[in-house]
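QUALITY CONTROL LOG
STEP: pairwise intake check
CHECKER ROLE: data steward
CRITERIA: each record must contain a sequence immediately followed by its structure tokens, with no blank fields

ENTRY 1 OF 2
RESULT FIELD BELOW
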Amino acid sequence: MKKIEHTVGGIDVIRDYLNADTHEIRPNEFETLLDAFWSDYRAFLLKKDKEYGSRYLHPLAVFCDLSPLDRLNARLDEKAGRLFAGNKDENTLDDLLGLLIHRAILLA
């Protein structure tokens, strides 16, 4: 399990439940891990939203008049392109997950 920077503490719970050698989840602990991860990831997304605003949900549209969904899809393509090119750093994965969450919100 990777550590998300800017977190509030749930990652420590995750580390307690993972097998340190194999990174396997111990039996019957998925719910605890999921709660800890989403708690931290929620805090991470809210921090980013405060820093940058909800540009996907409320775009400025200064240079581009694409819909919010089309903007998200373009960003998802760009992030996926980085992954396919071999860039597997945590920021790219965190960004991709955040974009997918924003997309799910737009489509809800």
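ENTRY 2 OF 2
RESULT FIELD BELOW
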Amino acid sequence: MAKSMRRKVNEFEIGANIEGNYLGQGKWYPGKIGRYLGNGAYDVIWTDCSKSTVDKQYIRLRRDNSSNKRRITDNDMECSVLKSRKLNDDSGK
């Protein structure tokens, strides 16, 4: 099959800053591509460090990379640290 006729399967790079239409409800949230799952589905890491599987039709590259939006780091370590801090904060209540 000619290169021009091949469908691009994995459209987003791992770690790409994206916006995802969570549950297809029309509101776009910032996140980052965690991994490609196949069949057009991706694991997305949202800015609150939660993860979900999102179909490529509900993902777009983030247009505004300005510093006024909270950004996700290049790995999940920050999310783990943030969750640990929250658990520690909550246990002191």
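INTAKE CHECK: passed for both entries
DESCRIPTIVE NOTE, ENTRY 2: The beta strands are 17-21, 28-38, 41-46, 51-55, 59-61.
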